[in-house]
């Protein structure tokens, strides 16, 4: 097996989506012992006479893994993944692309052929690549030199004074909440006007949301007034019409008529059914349209004070199995089914702890899971914080459960990306020098640095 480092970049369309697709393909068919860096957004590298429309920022990451493929075969496998992700085989050099994968390092060898130069010919001239390599393995020595990537990155950044505006993680995916309502529990009225909603959508997208969840009716506890599906549509329509069509959109609704209206417009990627009770005919139409379905466990919508699940875990397990069976019968493949256990909907604050502690058990159903815990009322058990002041607790839970769920539905995408990036930096750093022996100190324990 050979150790390789690859760079992945995308600067057109849904960039994080293309990188995510590539990472999954690499893990399935090319690499084992996979480790990925954080994702950095960097300016496009262009020739002086390049068209202005090519000036699109890139999202970049570096991955480390093991492969049995020889260099030429590895290159062919990477080109096939690029093609699968929509890269045009005849694209112009320097032009925008959905995906670009390069071999940076292959073991410690130096290779020069017609098709391949390893280490990559531009590696030492790309400060962001040196930076990402140093974050993954700072003591790694660049082949053909005696320089570590720690030293190379520090020298490059001291020279260029480069600073990056955005950094992201690919997993878990952040669903950004946009409440186009006057009365939602934590931000009601903030994004009720179309201009404010569209601006907030763009902000969440730039901060690293994978998709946006638009809701036009509050589901806060004990809501006394509900609006019709026509009113929901009147709130959503001016926002949907003005959004960039490349941004994936989910709509949070439990009205079948509104779902049919949305499908006829062809502007959405998900339906987020917070009732879990859409008619099977409507579900079949969603499946036929190629949209994903997110279905949430709830006793009632909006939730009623004093109405709680008994026998929590068996109830959720039975509900999840029933939902997956019904949704597959309606035509959904497993990879377009998302289950939400419904934190705050018919569960006490104490049950919320049990639900969150055991959420990884849902993986056995073979579908994706979504955690909708942002600013929920159960955080009041931890202190007298208002709904808008619960992002600290929300981020803490997200970090704790990030490897157990696929999507986190959150109000504050920026805080989540910053926290997840910092955690991934530490988790994926590889200490190539081995172990530190701490036995000579006051403790006899040995601390592993691998």
Task: Give a concise summary.
With 450 residues, the protein is of the alpha/beta class. Helix content is 33%, strand content 17%.
CATH architecture of the largest domain: Alpha-Beta Barrel
User: What strand line-up does the widest sheet have?
Assistant: 9-10-11-12-13-14-15-16
Secondary-structure class: alpha/beta
The figure for the number of domains is: 2
What is the CATH homology-level superfamily of the largest domain? Answer: Dihydropteroate synthase-like
Q: Name the overall outline.
A: globular
Low-pLDDT stretches? 434-450
Main β-sheet, in a few words? 8 strands, parallel, barrel
Structure summary, number of beta strands: 16
Q: Mind telling me the CATH class of the largest domain?
A: Alpha Beta
Q: What series of H and E elements makes up the topology?
A: EHEEEHEEEHHEEHEHEHEHEHEHEHEH
β-strand amount: 15-25%
Number of helices: 12
Separation of the first and last Cα atoms: 20 Å
Mean pLDDT: 90
Quaternary state reads: single chain
From the alpha carbons, calculate the radius of gyration and give it in angstroms.
24 Å
CATH-derived topology of the largest domain: TIM Barrel
Helix content: 25-40%
Layout of strands and helices, then pairs:
Elements: E1 2-10, H1 15-29, E2 32-36, E3 39-42, E4 58-67, H2 71-84, E5 100-106, E6 111-112, E7 117-118, H3 127-136, H4 149-160, E8 167-168, E9 173-179, H5 194-206, E10 211-215, H6 229-242, E11 249-252, H7 256-265, E12 270-273, H8 280-288, E13 292-296, H9 312-329, E14 337-340, H10 349-357, E15 368-371, H11 391-401, E16 407-410, H12 413-427
Parallel strand pairs: 9-10, 9-16, 10-11, 11-12, 12-13, 13-14, 14-15, 15-16
Antiparallel strand pairs: 1-4, 1-5, 2-4, 3-4, 3-8, 6-7
Helix pairs in contact: 3-4, 5-6, 6-7, 11-12
